[in-house]
DNA sequence: GAACGCTTTCCTGCTT
DNA sequence: TAAGCAGGAAAGCGTT
């Protein structure tokens, strides 16, 4: 089964999704990050089928959703067809996960247009689009919260290509067998300040130095993500200190609540985007 | 089931 | 005095 596009993405965004149904507080951590990951292929309209599968894999990975949670055969299409799917099409194709996929592809599609329209201007899309997409409207009941555990699969997990599914599952597990790591969580909060105002801030963006503004609030957020209501900053900071040995973080002497990304931390530099 | 990696929990001592 | 930092030790948990 594959989904037949009913309306275009553009018409969904401009006509059907009025501001009266906006949810400004919808966290966009994962979507924005996904957009950055796919920055190099910023025009999903031109993706091959294989690239669509890669995108699916990346989105599922970033959201810690089991690879078998969506029916892959519903996305047996190229980028052009993918971009033609409406929000309802995504829901129909992937159930609750569809809203996450739609959010991601919407960002990517807009990011690609942004590049094309601005032409030679050397602007980074994430600097503006994270805010722009905060205004995207979501139908009531389909608010995406990355802190809420992944939803149960809606459709039967019967991929059309066993090879692709095997590859999919293997890569997800190899990449991040235990889900999001603490340092990645911290990084994502830092990279999306408009979604988490006043929790952590950059002290020196180019050097990777950052400071906790609300240490206990960050700990609670981390605890919520890990389903651990007893998480405290003291425990979180102990885990942070273990990153020193692995050079994911570096010590910043003499400054409280200040950390610095190390050589083994990835994805925080502007040049990584 | 063992080994391993990552995180959590508890602790003591030190610094700010 | 409180809060935060540093790091040892042990345990829990999931993956391989």
TrEMBL record:
Molecular function via GO: DNA-binding transcription activator activity, RNA polymerase II-specific; sequence-specific double-stranded DNA binding
Is Nucleus tagged as a keyword? yes
**A GO BP annotation:** cell differentiation
- One Gene Ontology CC term in the entry: nucleus
Localization of this protein: Nucleus
Q: Which residues form the ETS domain?
A: 180-262
UniProt xrefs under SMART domains: ETS, SAM_PNT
Instruction: Name the InterPro entries on file.
Output: Ets_dom, ETS_fam, Pointed_dom, SAM/pointed_sf, WH-like_DNA-bd_sf, WH_DNA-bd_sf
Query: Which keywords appear in this protein's UniProt record, sorted alphabetically?
Result: DNA-binding, Nucleus, Transcription, Transcription regulation
Matching entries from PANTHER family are given as: ETS, ETS HOMOLOGOUS FACTOR
Tell me its family: Belongs to the ETS family.
Designated name of the protein? ETS homologous factor
Q: What is the lineage of its organism?
A: Eukaryota, Metazoa, Chordata, Craniata, Vertebrata
């Amino acid at each position: 089964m594959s989904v037949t596009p009913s309306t275009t993405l553009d018409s969904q965004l401009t006509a059907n999704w009025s501001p009266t149904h906006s949810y400004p507080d919808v966290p966009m951590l994962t979507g924005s990050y996904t957009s950055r990951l796919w920055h190099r292929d910023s025009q999903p309209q031109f993706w091959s089928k294989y690239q669509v599968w890669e995108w699916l894999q990346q989105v599922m990975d970033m959201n810690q959703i089991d690879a078998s949670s969506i029916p892959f055969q519903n996305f047996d299409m190229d980028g052009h067809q993918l971009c033609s799917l409406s929000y309802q099409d995504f829901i129909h194709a992937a159930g609750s996960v569809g809203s996450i996929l739609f959010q991601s592809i919407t960002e990517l599609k807009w990011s690609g247009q942004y590049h094309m329209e601005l032409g030679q201007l050397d602007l980074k899309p994430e600097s503006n689009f994270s805010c722009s997409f905060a205004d995207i409207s979501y139908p009531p009941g389909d608010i995406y919260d990355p802190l809420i555990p992944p939803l149960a699969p809606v459709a039967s997990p019967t991929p059309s290509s066993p090879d692709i599914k095997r590859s999919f599952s293997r890569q997800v597990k190899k990449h991040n067998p235990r889900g999001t790591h603490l340092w990645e969580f911290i990084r994502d909060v830092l990279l999306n300040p408009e979604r988490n105002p006043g929790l952590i801030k950059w002290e020196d963006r180019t050097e990777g130095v950052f400071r906790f503004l609300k240490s206990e609030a960050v700990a609670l957020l981390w605890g919520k993500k890990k389903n651990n209501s007893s998480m405290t900053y003291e425990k979180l900071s102990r885990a942070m200190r273990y990153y020193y040995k692995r050079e994911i973080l570096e010590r910043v002497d003499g400054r409280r609540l200040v950390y610095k990304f190390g050589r083994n931390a990835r994805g925080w530099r502007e040049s990584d985007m």
